Amino acid sequence: MEERPETELISIPATPRVSTPEILTPSGQRSPRAASKEGKSWTPTSFISPRFLSPIGTPMKRVLVNMKGYLEEVGHLTKLNPQDAWLPITESRNGNAHYAAFHNLNAGVGFQALVLPVAFAYLGWSWGILSLTIAYCWQLYTLWILVQLHEAVPGKRYNRYVELAQAAFGERLGVWLALFPTVYLSAGTATALILIGGETMKLFFQIVCGPTCTSNPLTTVEWYLVFTSLSIVLSQLPNLNSIAGLSLIGAVTAITYSTMVWILSVSQQRPPSISYEPLSLSQPSASVFLAMNALGIIAFSFRGHNLALEIQSTMPSTFKHPARVPMWKGAKVAYFFIAMCLFPIAIGGFWAYGNQMPPGGILTALYAFHSHDISRGILALTFLLVVFNCLSSFQIYSMPAFDSFEAGYTSRTNRPCSIWVRSGFRVFFGFVSFFIGVALPFLSSLAGLLGGLTLPVTFAYPCFMWVLIKQPPKYSFNWYFNWILGWLGVAFSLAFSIGGIWSIVNDGLKLKFFKPN
């Protein structure tokens, strides 16, 4: 019998190889397909080809195929921080594309959409629609950047926005640049949610109780306290994946009440003496500040980028199945529905109320102008959906703050937080947000300031991070494009922040939200 040359057994054929069947490895993951195509670099497992395995018996073949898949997975194994298993954002990593869609939609649609018609009242039709469209496309691009940079370095996952900023800008500068706006965005959004939620609960009670109600109603501050207490109770859920059900409720309620609000507004008779000319003041400088604050409101309507990496970190990730695939799939679905909510509210709300739009937004206008024209049941349902959405959004926006508190505790004690410590942090955060809301009850002005101060998180920093981490060729289109977008974002942030501060100082305590006529 003629012996087969040994070199033939280990030779790599020049023709394309047949894919190795995918089977389960000892780690429970599916093994990758056969080694890379001809022309790519050699790997330690490239010799385990179907040609090599052909003369070997089935048991030995199975062992070698399993070993190949295991080696390829281990070769790209992500180095995890043991402390992540104790923190609420990274405690559970069983997320998927559906969870990503729920979380992104819950974070991307909410009360900020209700004040978009206020921005249109100061900008007018042309500048309002143009600004909203540019902001939507811009933030969608920066979201794609964050999704891609989550695992930009092999073997490393940037689970939080601050971690990615440190990798791009350096340890100390990254903290200084990203920590304040992300924490401010969480706390500021929580405060605004308490304002909206408390006022909406008050209106819901008034509608349900009716004009003949004889009970002594709670004051506005007491309704804030009721909403804060409910939020604290729901915040006891341990981690980000555990609130996926709440995010689903928040997403469904947001889509529902957003659609109801603009349909009810455009279906009713418009107020008399309505005008679509942009609001302006006698002093040109004051009009400029108003326009800057309006642009800040539009910027704030696209929130959620401070949560993108955190949402992606809840998903399992391997070399063959990276987390960016389900994350981007869920994000695309979420932002399709976000566009279907934001644009109709902004355009329909401004068409229905024009320059008579109150500072509280379209929900305030609906109650002020049409509370007697729409059935109490529909109005009550609309306000109840807003309350549910605010309660759900409070949880996902508070999670980064909870994570920061617990990270500081675990790094000092080198042990996970007990249930009492975790509950204490969340109670503390809830009531701090409540006291801030009582002290600063200015929704539209607060939205403009929030949009200005946190704008770099959404529009500027991701562009800088892409250039610093991915390092595209210098002076290429990609290089110029991201640098220009980043510096434009910084400039807009300064301008919108000044407009928001001016609006707060100018309006003071005169702004009363949800005040019916």
UniProtKB/TrEMBL annotation:
<keyword id="KW-0812">Transmembrane</keyword>
<comment type="similarity">
    <text>Belongs to the amino acid/polyamine transporter 2 family. Amino acid/auxin permease (AAAP) (TC 2.A.18.1) subfamily.</text>
</comment>
<keyword id="KW-0472">Membrane</keyword>
<keyword id="KW-0927">Auxin signaling pathway</keyword>
<dbReference type="GO" id="GO:0006865">
    <property type="term" value="P:amino acid transport"/>
</dbReference>
<dbReference type="GO" id="GO:0012505">
    <property type="term" value="C:endomembrane system"/>
</dbReference>
<feature type="domain" description="Amino acid transporter transmembrane">
    <location>
        <begin position="94"/>
        <end position="504"/>
    </location>
</feature>
<feature type="region of interest" description="Disordered">
    <location>
        <begin position="1"/>
        <end position="42"/>
    </location>
</feature>
<feature type="transmembrane region" description="Helical">
    <location>
        <begin position="243"/>
        <end position="264"/>
    </location>
</feature>
<comment type="function">
    <text>Carrier protein involved in proton-driven auxin influx. Mediates the formation of auxin gradient from developing leaves (site of auxin biosynthesis) to tips by contributing to the loading of auxin in vascular tissues and facilitating acropetal (base to tip) auxin transport within inner tissues of the root apex, and basipetal (tip to base) auxin transport within outer tissues of the root apex. May be involved in lateral roots and nodules formation.</text>
</comment>
<feature type="transmembrane region" description="Helical">
    <location>
        <begin position="480"/>
        <end position="505"/>
    </location>
</feature>
<keyword id="KW-0813">Transport</keyword>
<keyword id="KW-1003">Cell membrane</keyword>
<feature type="transmembrane region" description="Helical">
    <location>
        <begin position="284"/>
        <end position="302"/>
    </location>
</feature>
<dbReference type="GO" id="GO:0015293">
    <property type="term" value="F:symporter activity"/>
</dbReference>
<feature type="transmembrane region" description="Helical">
    <location>
        <begin position="374"/>
        <end position="398"/>
    </location>
</feature>
<dbReference type="GO" id="GO:0005886">
    <property type="term" value="C:plasma membrane"/>
</dbReference>
<feature type="transmembrane region" description="Helical">
    <location>
        <begin position="446"/>
        <end position="468"/>
    </location>
</feature>
<feature type="transmembrane region" description="Helical">
    <location>
        <begin position="114"/>
        <end position="141"/>
    </location>
</feature>
<dbReference type="Pfam" id="PF01490">
    <property type="entry name" value="Aa_trans"/>
</dbReference>
<feature type="transmembrane region" description="Helical">
    <location>
        <begin position="173"/>
        <end position="196"/>
    </location>
</feature>
<keyword id="KW-0769">Symport</keyword>
<dbReference type="GO" id="GO:0009734">
    <property type="term" value="P:auxin-activated signaling pathway"/>
</dbReference>
<feature type="transmembrane region" description="Helical">
    <location>
        <begin position="419"/>
        <end position="440"/>
    </location>
</feature>
<keyword id="KW-1133">Transmembrane helix</keyword>
<dbReference type="InterPro" id="IPR013057">
    <property type="entry name" value="AA_transpt_TM"/>
</dbReference>
<protein>
    <submittedName>
        <fullName>Lysine histidine transporter-like 8</fullName>
    </submittedName>
</protein>
<feature type="transmembrane region" description="Helical">
    <location>
        <begin position="333"/>
        <end position="354"/>
    </location>
</feature>
<keyword id="KW-0029">Amino-acid transport</keyword>
